[in-house]
């Protein structure tokens, strides 16, 4: 009878150890997957931000060129020498 109780205790201890190892491995896998997902999400967000900034810079450049062209049109139409002689509005480009 004592040997049967010992055998049952060994089986129970074995099941507890197996469950503990399975839980530990599942936790490690979940941690790796979460880290990978966060890294990919961060990269995607960074790419979206860079694309957005690129589009904004493109629009700002177009607005600057258009503003320069409008200034030239106004100076030619109004014969405003002060505006026509402004070096920042020559040929519709903004000098930096």
Plain-language structure description:
With 96 residues, the protein is mainly alpha-helical. The chain has a domain at 57-91. It is built from 2 helices and no strands. The radius of gyration is 36 Å and the shape is rod-shaped. The termini are far apart. The relative contact order is 0.06.
Summary, kept brief:
This protein is mostly helical and 96 residues long.
Oligomer: single chain
Tell me the helix content: over 70%
| Principal-axes shape call | rod-shaped
Number of strands: 0
Structural class given helices, strands, pairing? mainly alpha
What fraction of residues sit in β-strands?
Answer: under 5%
- Per DSSP, the total helix count is 2
The biggest sheet amounts to: none
Overall pLDDT: 86
Rg calc:
36 Å
Low-confidence stretches: 89-96
User: What is the terminal-to-terminal distance?
Assistant: 94 Å
What is the succession of H and E elements? HH
What is the fold's blueprint, element by element?
Layout: H1 2-78, H2 81-84
Keywords summarizing the entry:
96 residues; mainly alpha; 2 helices; 84% helix; rod-shaped; disordered C terminus
